[in-house]
């Protein structure tokens, strides 16, 4: 299988959409088309499929000009896989896949045993044979996409044209579809695939064709073509490429927020304001909560014991400020003690009451926000009524210790910049993720809330719109609660306060 494109141009009326495109590709390659909206990707696919005729240039399939190949014959060579769509008819999956064999039918003929076997083999290849008797319309978007790929395989071609196959799919189904596309290329298929995700290109494609304003501006191995400079110019936003421990490249938005040059600035602001004279009298490290007690007050933070729990005796007798500096540690247990010391200073009932910031205790400080048709993210797990976010357009949970239904925290880099509103837990301060989360949420309304949150106005300078925390008023009862290892937030032992920009 070989496709060669030479000096290809195309116009819609007087508007030129593609200009002098040239490349060749052969079986065994996954070739990705990348470019912003309107770059010409879909038009190029229509030309490869014979659905449009070029204004100039030519396309050759195995040495033959495709303009000289009949539609039925071309269908035996090239298969088209659109984006998944539910459709209006409740065809069974086996029948949808069987439709891919029609190019081998005689006129008005019915499918024979050979076509039925090809359809069954195609479903088995993708591991969806158990869907055969289910209505296509009842499948998820990811499952429907697999059915469409099976239909193309049943067509018995060696070239597959996939038009944004991961569009509208969730993170897991995107990975599954891209893995299958790569596997088919390894099996000798020539795969053309368009996408809006440069991460997919870097991780899965053998080659990238980079289109911009109708011109082919890049052609080669993805790591050679997709540089930070090129991606930033193509998409008109600053892009950063980061290499992980496994050697994978990650495409990240290089957002210019208040902490980009100094991610520790937020922590320094908090620690610098803590008292140097108040002495720590007690430190309690429980299963769920960590507490620091001083003459000034009583502060708590969510317990984090990795890689090992801290020694409370180490901190007793030090100044609050000295203990607060433990928040800089990457031992998360020590960092939780440091955050509790910070809260011990800032979450003092007398100081906060003077400012009129009192608020019913709780973690859902979203009063006054219009949630309807908004994309809402929750970073960290918060207890909430099941129907609390029903009116939102999209509700996502990002958790570093995931539970079923959560998104992995690596998805934050892609999804958080798209959010309209975000509710972030205070524990992100001790696990060091809050600065980057705020960078990614520059376009969102951000609420940081929960018992681990310091009621410090300085936080509002870092892209946070509202903070809500807990001021402990019943120290002895809360100590007993922590030592008993009782799960759940300790709102019953204090008063709530809230500050907004």
Task: Write out key terms for the chains shown.
single chain; alpha/beta; Enolase-like, domain 1; Rossmann fold; 27% helix; elongated
Give structural notes.
With 501 residues, this protein is α/β, with parallel strands linked by helices. Among the domains are: 265-349, Enolase-like, domain 1, CATH 3.30.390; 358-473 and 489-500, 3-Layer(aba) Sandwich (Rossmann fold). The chain has 16 helices and 22 strands. Helix 4 (113-125) crosses helix 5 (141-154) and helix 5 packs parallel to helix 6 (171-186).
The SS-based structural class is alpha/beta
For this structure, the CATH topology of the domain at 358-473 and 489-500 is Rossmann fold
Q: Helix count?
A: 16
CATH architecture of the domain at 358-473 and 489-500: 3-Layer(aba) Sandwich
CATH class of the domain at 358-473 and 489-500: Alpha Beta
Layout: helices, strands, pairs:
Elements: E1 2-12, E2 15-26, E3 30-34, H1 41-48, E4 56-61, E5 64-65, H2 71-75, E6 78-81, H3 93-98, H4 113-125, H5 141-154, E7 159-163, H6 171-186, E8 190-195, H7 198-204, E9 207-212, E10 215-220, H8 222-225, H9 228-235, E11 239-243, E12 249-253, H10 265-272, E13 280-285, E14 289-294, E15 298-302, H11 320-324, H12 332-346, H13 349-354, E16 358-359, E17 375-379, E18 394-398, H14 412-415, E19 421-425, H15 434-440, E20 445-449, E21 466-472, H16 475-483, E22 494-500
Parallel strand pairs: 3-8, 3-9, 6-7, 7-8, 17-18, 17-19, 19-20, 20-21
Antiparallel strand pairs: 1-2, 1-4, 4-5, 9-10, 11-12, 13-14, 14-15, 16-22, 21-22
């Amino acid at each position: 299988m070989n496709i060669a494109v030479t000096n290809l141009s195309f116009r819609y009326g007087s508007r030129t959409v593609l200009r002098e495109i040239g490349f060749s590709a052969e079986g065994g390659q996954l070739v990705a088309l990348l470019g912003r909206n309107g770059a010409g990707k879909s038009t190029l696919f229509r030309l490869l499929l014979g659905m449009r005729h070029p204004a100039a240039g030519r396309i050759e399939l195995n040495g033959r000009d495709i303009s000289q190949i009949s539609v039925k014959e071309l269908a035996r060579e090239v298969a088209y896989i659109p984006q998944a769509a539910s459709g209006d008819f409740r065809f069974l999956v086996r029948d949808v896949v069987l439709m891919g064999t029609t190019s081998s039918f005689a006129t008005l003929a019915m499918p024979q045993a050979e076509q039925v076997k090809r359809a069954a083999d195609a479903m088995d290849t993708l591991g969806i044979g158990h869907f055969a008797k289910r209505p296509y319309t009842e499948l998820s978007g990811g499952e429907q996409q697999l059915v469409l790929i099976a239909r193309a395989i049943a067509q018995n071609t060696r070239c597959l044209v996939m038009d944004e196959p991961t569009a509208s799919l969730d993170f897991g189904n995107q990975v599954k579809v891209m893995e299958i596309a790569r596997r088919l290329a390894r099996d000798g298929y020539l795969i053309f695939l368009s996408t809006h995700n440069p991460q997919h290109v870097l991780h899965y494609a053998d080659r990238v064709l980079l289109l911009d304003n109708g011109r082919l501006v890049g052609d080669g191995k993805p790591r050679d073509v997709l540089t930070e400079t090129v991606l930033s110019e193509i998409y008109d936003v600053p892009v950063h490429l980061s290499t992980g421990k496994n050697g994978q490249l990650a495409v990240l938005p290089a957002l210019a927020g208040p902490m980009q040059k100094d991610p520790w600035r937020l922590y320094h602001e908090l620690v610098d304001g803590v008292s140097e004279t108040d002495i720590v009298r007690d430190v309690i490290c429980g299963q769920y909560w960590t507490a620091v007690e001083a003459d000034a007050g009583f502060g708590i933070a969510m317990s984090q014991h990795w890689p090992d729990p801290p020694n409370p005796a180490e901190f007793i007798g030090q100044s609050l400020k000295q203990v607060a500096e433990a928040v800089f540690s990457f031992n998360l247990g020590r960092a939780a003690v440091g955050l509790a010391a910070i809260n011990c200073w800032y979450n003092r009932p007398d100081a906060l009451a003077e400012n009129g910031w009192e608020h019913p205790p709780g973690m859902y400080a979203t009063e006054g926000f219009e949630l309807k048709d908004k994309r809402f993210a929750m970073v960290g797990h918060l207890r909430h009524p099941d129907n609390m976010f029903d009116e939102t357009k999209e509700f996502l949970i990002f958790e570093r210790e995931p539970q079923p239904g959560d998104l992995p925290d690596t998805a934050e880099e892609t999804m958080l910049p798209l959010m309209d509103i975000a509710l972030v837990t205070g524990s992100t301060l001790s696990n060091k993720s809050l600065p980057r989360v705020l960078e990614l949420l520059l376009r969102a309304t951000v609420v940081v809330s929960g018992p681990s949150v310091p009621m410090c106005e300085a936080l509002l300078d870092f892209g946070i719109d509202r903070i809500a925390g807990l001021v402990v008023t019943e120290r002895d009862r809360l100590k007993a609660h922590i030592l008993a290892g009782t799960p759940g937030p300790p709102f019953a032992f204090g008063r709530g306060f809230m500050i907004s920009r």
